[in-house]
Predict the structure.
Amino acid sequence: MEEKVSLRELIGTLRKHLKLMLFITFMAALTSGIISYFVLTPVYQASTQLLINQANAEKQIYSPVEVQANLQLINTYNVIIKSPVILEKAVGHLKLDLTAEQLNDKITVQSEQDSQVVNVFVRDTNPKRAASIANEVAAVFQTEIVKIMNVDNVSILAKANVPEKKKPVKPRPLLNIAITIMLGLMTGAGAAFLREYLDNTIKDEQDVERLLDLPMLGSVAVITVKEGASTGLEENKTAFGGETIGS
């Protein structure tokens, strides 16, 4: 016989195991909060902007051909910014206890769409060091690109600075907790359905009909009598050993 599960039964299962779901969700949120606030190290981000063009003080109008050529070179410049030639000098100038490869992992270079502006992002556990690295990488790139590409077309639009209110970019505890709550509810619901599926005990007449595939003719109810209350039945008198027992 094909077994069908109604929406009411699904909701009933969730309500039946609501405490289990809430417990799993609470423990997951608590664990996420503890890890986010007390275990993970905050990471801060600093950024600087570079403008790549054919700078010429005497020129007031830019040629569309030159702009298009510059746009095609943006990807090349993005690679050069993170190259060992630039990063090794930045490490040496700042006297960082890092290799060029380790510094490379901290830097992200992005270019605006159809724009000659390049953003250099640096992430570090120290906000001041992140700003210093971003500014130094930009300065070294501006100097070295003259030798590498034999052009002088890089300008620094904005230097990285350390804001008064240092806000880490990760971890984000509230976001982590919110995501964990959703995952906890989903896990709790899964655990509730699994527990209900594995529970093969008979609880009511519906279970009997479902297991035996037979109609239910009747059931025996349990009568609960309060202490001191009369049941309405006279007690039988029983004779034993010549004596009468009972009322």
